[in-house]
Amino acid sequence: MNSGGKDSASAWWWTLCRGWEITNLITVRVTGGDSHMFQIPGIDVSKVQAEIAGITYTEVEVGGEQNEEIEELRSALVHLDIDGLVVGALRSDYQKSRLERMCEQLDIHIWTPLWHQNGEAHVRQLIENKFKVMISGVSCEGLDASWLGKILSMDDFCDLKRLSQKFRFHVDGEGGEYETIVLAGPHLSNDITIKYDTHWDGKRGSIHITECFPWRV
């Protein structure tokens, strides 16, 4: 599964490093206002990621209702010819347990290669391995509008770590403190260019992608 963000990108890269074939890039689009399971800001980048990688893009719409969204996903996946699902879950037992139960119902495997990785090491390794990680949403004290659209450098990550210690949020964003999209990385053969609008209400905000396409000279 692919939200277009850093955890999905890392799980995707892990899959390629194992020599496995990726047949579908599955992205969940939440049509309601919020979701307990799935990322909302910036997911439009997923379609271009699939285009660059030459992988079939599969988008599943869910309403975002807590007791219905996993069943809506299951109902869509039952029609796909897949052997298993790779997801970028880090520490959310809520997310992991529901996806595992869904895969059991579908009689397919599930892999969560990032599960319980050290959050600081996880983000640091992405930057070191040339993943271009952009902040697409922020929703916690300590992160203001200046972070929206920022592509994380190592200096930025040091600032993020300092703020996470001061304001007591997860440095990897696992608690929903921030969301990301990935515009380049070793799993992609080309960079992605985006244009976007920024929405900020004084406490939280996100970017809204208006254009998204493979980088061109």
Task: Explain what this protein looks like in three dimensions.
It is a single chain. This protein has 6 helices and 8 strands. It is α/β, with parallel strands linked by helices and 217 residues long. The protein has one domain: HUPs (Rossmann fold), CATH 3.40.50.620. The strands form 3 sheets. Strands 6-5-8-7 form a 4-stranded antiparallel β-sheet. A two-stranded parallel ribbon has the order 1-2. Strands 3-4 form a two-stranded parallel sheet. The longest helix is centred in the middle third of the chain and has 14 residues, at 93-106.
Q: Give the spatial strand order of the biggest sheet.
A: 6-5-8-7
| Low confidence ranges | none
Looking at the structure, the CATH topology is Rossmann fold
Structural class: alpha/beta
What oligomeric assembly is this protein in? single chain
- For the CA atoms, what is the radius of gyration? 16 Å
CATH superfamily annotation: HUPs
Let me know the average pLDDT: 95
* Number of DSSP E strands: 8
Tell me what portion of residues adopts beta-strand conformation: 15-25%
Short account of what is shown:
With 217 residues, the protein is α/β, with parallel strands linked by helices.
What are the key terms here?
217 residues, alpha/beta, Rossmann fold, two-stranded parallel ribbon, 31% helix
Topology (elements, then pairings):
Layout lengths: L5 H12 L6 E7 L14 H9 L2 E7 L6 H9 L6 E3 L6 H14 L2 E3 L7 H10 L3 E7 L15 H14 L10 E7 L7 E9 L4 E10 L3
Parallel strand pairs: 1-2, 3-4
Antiparallel strand pairs: 5-6, 5-8, 7-8
